[in-house]
UniProtKB/TrEMBL annotation:
Domain of life according to the entry: Bacteria
Name the record gives this protein: Uncharacterized protein
Record keywords: Plasmid
Upper lineage: Bacteria, Bacillati, Actinomycetota, Actinomycetes, Mycobacteriales
Amino acid sequence: MFKFFRRRSATARDQPGVEQSVESASPADLARLRLFASEFAVSGPFVDPDSDEHDLWQAGKLVPWYISHLLDNGRHSGPTVDIACHAEEPTVDLWEAGQAYPTWDQTIALAQLLDVRVRDLTHPDARPRHHPNRPQRRRRDLAILSFEPSAVHAATECRTIL
């Protein structure tokens, strides 16, 4: 089977991008991907989040790839996921692409749906990062490790634990 890729501009090729193939990824990008993959684990079933988990969320440490993986493994799809997460279609799809960041209440609802702790959706090395060529929708062959900074800011601005 052949794979056809659109040719990207020189500027997009020079920047570490979301749509970068493994073959063309820099050693640093490959190391980051391996780190995120090797440290992904579910620590246990959902429990009410603590202030440390809130701090992880507030700092933009959620990982779109982890969300996608857990949704896929649980066979969660469609508008019922958005409803369970207190969102409107296609909000969860935008989370998976890193285009939108869930609010704190939505993050808790997502963790409850997936039956994981909020910290299992995060990685300590994750940070919001702008990608000029970020896909509008999640692609199954793509590991998206960060959210857009503007999305994190919009969701976390002036949010506190109630």
